[in-house]
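Both lines are retained for reference:
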Amino acid sequence: MEYGICVRNVEEAKIAHEAGYDFVEAQVVTLLPEEDEASFEKVLSDYQALSIPVKACNVFLPGDLKIVGETIDQNRIEKYVETALRRVKKLGADTVVFGSGGARSFSEEEFPRDKAEEQIVQFLDTVADYAE
């Protein structure tokens, strides 16, 4: 059995290794999916220098990248998802946890729940297309 732990950054990953964990779960948002490749390459290099593997990622979406509601930006979503999943793969992880409460939150008083559910399904379809 292996034991892993969620970390917020490379420094916490170093501590996890020292504490005896077998792997870490990094945050997708720390892979800077909306920034240029040069910014990501520095982060990637830092993770690759670790003595502990990144096997999974969490915090898939930033809270301001809404996937439900009246103000979703499908172009931004698709660009983010494509870049994020490509970077997760480069990192060596094969699992992404979809929590992202801020991105999928909405007020049922202002937006119909059935429409929000449809939008989440559409988002997951988009993710599936890029994940293949």
Summary: The helical segments are 10-18, 37-48, 74-91, 101-104, 113-131. The beta strands are 4-6, 23-27, 54-58, 95-96. The radius of gyration is 16 Å.
